[in-house]
UniProtKB/TrEMBL annotation:
Keywords: Heme, Iron, Metal-binding, Oxidoreductase, Peroxidase, Signal. Heme c 1 binds at C69, C72, H73. GO terms for molecular function: cytochrome-c peroxidase activity; electron transfer activity; heme binding; metal ion binding. This is Cytochrome c peroxidase. GO terms for cellular component: cell envelope. It comes from Aureibacter tunicatorum. It is found in: Cell envelope. Coiled coil: none annotated. Signal peptide: none annotated. Binds 2 heme groups per subunit. Heme c 2 binds at C213, C216, H217. Its EC number is 1.11.1.5. Residues 47-195 form the Di-haem cytochrome c peroxidase domain. Binds 2 heme groups.
Amino acid sequence: MRYDLAVFFLVIFFVLEADSTSNKEYNWLRFNYLETEKSSTKAVNRKKAELGKMLFFDKNLSADSTVSCETCHQPNLYFTDGVSLSTLGVSGKKLKRHTPSVINMAFHNGFFWDGGAKNLESLILGPLTDEDEMGMNLKVLEANLNEDLNYQKKFNLAFGIDTIRIAHLQKALAAYMGTLQMSGTKFDQFLIGESELTSTEIKGFNLFVDKKCISCHQLPMMSDFSYHNTGLDSVYSEAFERLAMGRFRITRDSSLIGAFKTPSLKFVSNTAPYMHDGRFENLMGVLNHYSGDLYDNPYLDRKLDPQGINMSTEEKKAIIEFLQIL
């Protein structure tokens, strides 16, 4: 069957990845951020991650002590907030972009929908200081942390410091976010020969490959972590710091106007709604877009046919069955 050939190439990929490391027990399905460092630093990293978790759930990091990182990245919702555009920030205003999951971000390349942050540490400053999200003044936050005896102790244990700086907070939060890793889905198990797929899931897998969804949603994280204009819009406003212009806002490369980061499809059935502005309530809405509802604008990614991807309703249902096991 055709899926046997597809799986063959996927297995070859994993074998090559495994051979590239000296750790014989390495397996990306069980990869853990805390275990990537040399043994002499594991304990320190664990302390940083524990401190980062404490900070992640602390509402005192916001200007009015009502919003924490967890407010929008809720564990029970796969670290999303379940709405198109959140109004849970300190201003109560609707945010300009959809809240993405932070699961498996240790494997990502580029952060925010437009890649405006290069690493987890720089990512943290965005929501922390944004006037509509947490609205915090960094000097005030730094002073507050240094006045908190509990935090003084925790930061000293993690970093060996007496004076807390924002950079230490960034490193601690990044360490915790690096541990937010999940795997072991049915498809993960299938790839290592520990699970079988149903005929519909196999059909969906084949369609996912045949329709070239996999050209952008590549294994193992189901994303190329690149930026594409997928025909969502035909007009790109310059309002709100050119947020609608996507990657162009960062690079000033006109070919990337309206291009946004390819989201990972891991656990995608649990992280609705979808797209950078959460415009689609369900996966069928996403597939309907790609099958013909896209705008043929001058910046449309060359990987996409302006006429859309030819998919029947039954084919879409099969693809969704496959997406549900990622």
